[in-house]
Design a protein that fits this description.
Number of strands: 0
Helix content: 25-40%
Number of helices: 1
Strand content: under 5%
Largest sheet: none
């Protein structure tokens, strides 16, 4: 969502049971976002 002030935000929720690799999903997502040029 663009607020018009050069800021944007994305909310993403990932759920699952313990042991289903959520940490791995988070790492893949973070790496993908960095490669796409996303920054905090």
């Amino acid at each position: 969502m663009d607020t018009g002030a050069g800021n944007s935000s994305i909310n993403l929720m990932i759920g699952g049971e313990a042991g289903q690799g959520l940490a791995t999903v988070g790492q893949i997502l973070a790496k993908s976002l960095v490669r796409a040029g996303a920054r905090a």
